[in-house]
Specification:
binds zinc ion, 3-stranded antiparallel sheet, 7-stranded mixed sheet, alpha/beta, binds nicotinamide-adenine-dinucleotide, 374 residues, globular
Length: 374
């Protein structure tokens, strides 16, 4: 099949070697995968989930330059629980039993869970084999697919075991998003707005006219990826500029930890974005017009506006302290300052934090129904 729109190509420099990201509606077709990497590989293993394979597996397999005798399809389970050492071991062993060698290739077909797991298995098997990522959720397309982070969860926390192991190729086909459930679209939408508000002005301009319907459009996804690529290129390992990608995530992660399962990741990030906008406005880091336009953008997305009922700032504080961005000077907040731009601020007085929290506070539960969310 021919891609319906011109393919956007991004080159991502990385210490492990540059890799290409192809973005188009309909990008998952033979041209995208042509070349020695897959044509010469003794073995190619597609790692996916049964539901994703049912929807899009045939299309991928038809596009891969790999005849059936060299191709294996392996499936894994759903959700964070499947990003486990147990699943990794099952995949390592299945690949070895099928004669996987160092020049064989793993191809991930799925959302962030599949990408993180397939990438981790590729990073560790035989001390590292090549992998190709075909992300199928909005979150994975605009965020997880670029940057080279791979990993699994352990009981002590999420993504605590892993490796930087960039894929050799990423094929982003936005037509694969048409089958995505609404909740999964919302999860990616929170990230799209994050890029617009604090990371990239091109995304900001697109968000002003395209959201919410256009979140899965090739232009919007491409602009988000280009923004992430620019940040990652400047700063491959976690550090300064890369922190802008965490805009809205400090409070968002605390909400997810304090009230597990109540909000999706993108929804928690959207609440986090409202909070940092309120804080930025209060600390006079941004002008009123920008903050109002950013809030209006969030309103248009119809993402959740407040933390789950009954959750107070005090409830979230314990979780905020565990954030990676706590230093000796206290918690660092990334604050939006202008369209597509944010700045790190630390030493913020608690009174300002609690005042800004009023912008996202949920309804207080009536007496007797309050639950301890920890
Ligand atoms: N490596 C990184 O840089 C990075 C960045 C952000 C998030 N992540 C990780 O990504 C994970 C979350 O990823 P996610 O939000 O994509 O969730 P997910 O991978 O769990 O996918 C969500 C659901 O959608 C289904 N699905 C996937 N594609 C579909 C499609 N095209 N049509 C219909 N259903 C489809 C999946 O089977 C799953 O049930 C987390 O584990 C997170 O830690 C990694
Ligand atoms: Zn995120």
């Amino acid at each position: 099949m021919v891609a319906e729109r011109p393919v956007r190509r991004l080159q991502i420099p990385s210490r492990a070697g540059a890799y290409e990201v192809l973005i188009a509606e309909g990008a998952c077709q033979p041209d995208a995968f042509a070349g020695d990497l897959l044509e010469r590989a003794p073995h190619v293993a597609v790692v996916t989930q049964p539901n994703v394979y049912d929807l899009h597996g045939a299309r991928l397999v038809a596009a891969l330059p790999v005849e059936p005798s060299r191709l294996t399809v392996l499936t894994m389970g759903q959700g964070e629980r499947a990003k486990s050492l147990r699943s990794a071991e099952r995949l390592w062993r299945s690949l070895l039993q099928r004669g996987f060698t160092r020049d064989s290739v793993v191809v991930a077909l799925g959302g962030g869970v599949v990408g993180d797991m397939a990438g981790f298995v590729a990073a560790t098997l035989l001390r590292g084999v090549a992998w190709v990522n075909v992300p199928t959720t909005l979150l994975a397309q605009v965020d997880a697919a670029v940057g080279g982070k791979t990993g699994i969860n352990v009981l002590e926390g999420r993504n605590l075991v892993g490796a930087f192991h960039p894929p050799r190729l990423v094929v982003v086909d936005t037509s694969l998003l048409k089958t995505l459930p609404a909740r999964q679209v919302r999860s990616g939408l929170g990230e799209v707005v994050k890029y617009g508000i604090g990371v990239d002005e091109e995304v900001w301009n697109l968000c002003l006219t395209r959201l919410p319907e256009g979140a899965c459009d090739q232009d919007v996804v491409g602009a988000c990826l280009a923004a992430k690529a620019r940040v990652v290129a400047a700063d491959e390992h976690e550090g300064g500029l890369r922190r802008s990608l965490n805009l809205g995530h400090t409070l968002g992660h605390a909400i997810e930890a304090a009230a597990p399962g109540r909000l999706g990741h993108g929804e928690a990030v959207a609440v986090g974005l409202r909070f940092v906008l309120a804080l930025s406005r209060r600390l006079q880091r941004c002008d009123e017009a920008f903050a109002a336009a950013a809030e209006a953008m969030l309103d248009r997305t119809n993402l959740v506006r407040s933390v789950p009922a009954g959750l107070t700032f005090a409830d979230l504080e314990a979780f905020l302290q565990r954030d990676k961005k706590v230093s000796r000077r206290g918690l660092t907040w990334m604050l939006p300052v202008a369209p597509g731009r944010c700045e790190a601020v630390d030493g913020t007085p608690r009174a300002d934090l609690t005042a800004a929290f009023a912008a996202v506070a949920g309804p207080v539960r009536p007496l007797g129904t309050a639950r301890n969310c920890r």
